[in-house]
Amino acid sequence: MSERLSEFDLIAKLLAPLATSPDAFGLKDDVAMIAPRAGYDLVVTTDAIVEGLDFFASDPPDTIARKALRVNLSDLAAKGADPAAYLLTLLLPEKINDDFLKSFAAGLAQDQKTFGIALLGGDMSATPGPLSISITAFGHVPKGQIVRRNGACVDDLVFVTGTIGDSGGGLAQLKSGMHEPSRLIERYRVPEPRIGFAPLVRVASASIDVSDGLLADLGHIAEASGVRIIVEADKIPCSPEVMALWGKDAIVRAATAGDDYEIAFTSSSQLYDGQTRVTCIGRVEKGAGVALIGRGGGEIDVPRKGFRHF
């Protein structure tokens, strides 16, 4: 095993080049600043990913870095916010070497260019446990236009971007021992946060990113808004790869798999940006909870609606 850079060499050689904003002070101070943008609110989110739970030890280091950043950008997009900056915390086991860290930093650099975001600072430490990465991301949304979970109204329609279940399918393929690249594995390793859709999200009544599972996350909207959400099973958009992988169980498995990082939202009318696939999958009614309805109108029993951390 090759040696790992010291803490200060890691900062100077691999992380400081990512701190492209003057607000980061070149990572040579204990703090950074976030300059307020006139007419905007600052939106903050944080998410952690852990080896063995959110990614595999065998995953390419650059994809691990990109997933860590992108799951946070997905939260910002679901609130209607544009990304601005982020903090990075690394808990590094002894096995993590210089080559891994260089690839990891390269993955962050790639996505910083893609999404127009910069590193502000963070922290790192050794750990006897698995590799753990935590990112806190900051974004800006026009003042008063943040979209929360609690705004869904009776008679709203329910929509979701993209396709559902791809990441869960990729995880299933990896667990089955498949190592050849596939579209589903790529979707598991490198999610696609809907940053470009954020401006349209701002006119939705409620919104959430699909991380725990479509039904589970719509359940969060239903609870916060005090409504019942009906999801029509045959309208849930699934890719041909997911349908081929899971067959007759595809819809229920896709709707509960999680890790999609699409945006589910409610609105009185459909929203289009001309680039993002958007599908109407249901409606908002009086009542409570979320229900998956089959073609005959009956409710499909779904014992577990999504992922739970505990």
Structural summary, described in words:
- The protein is an alpha+beta fold and 310 residues long.
- The chain has two domains: 7-142, PurM-like, N-terminal domain (60s Ribosomal Protein L30, Chain: A), CATH 3.30.1330.10; 157-293, Phosphoribosyl-aminoimidazole Synthetase, Chain A, domain 2 (Alpha-Beta Complex), CATH 3.90.650.10.
- It has nine helices and ten strands.
- The chain has helices spanning 7-15, 61-78, 98-115, 166-175, 183-189, 198-201, 214-225, 240-246, 250-257; strands at residues 40-50, 82-92, 118-126, 132-142, 157-161, 206-209, 228-232, 263-267, 278-285, 289-293.
- The strands form two sheets. A six-stranded mixed beta sheet has the order 6-8-5-9-7-10.
- Strand 2, helix 3 (98-115) and strand 3 (118-126) form a beta-alpha-beta unit.
- It is globular, with a radius of gyration of 20 Å.
- The relative contact order is 0.16.
- The mean pLDDT is 94.
Number of E-type strands: 10
Task: Please tell me the overall pLDDT.
Answer: 94
Per CATH, the architecture of the largest domain is Alpha-Beta Complex
Sheet with most strands: 6 strands, mixed
Output the CATH topology of the largest domain.
Answer: Phosphoribosyl-aminoimidazole Synthetase, Chain A, domain 2
Strand proportion, as a percent range, falls in: 15-25%
How many structural domains are formed by the residues? 2
The helix-and-strand class reads alpha+beta
What distance separates the N and C termini? 35 Å
Identify the CATH homologous superfamily of the largest domain.
PurM-like C-terminal domain
How are helices and strands ordered from N to C? Answer: HEHEHEEEHHHEHEHHEEE
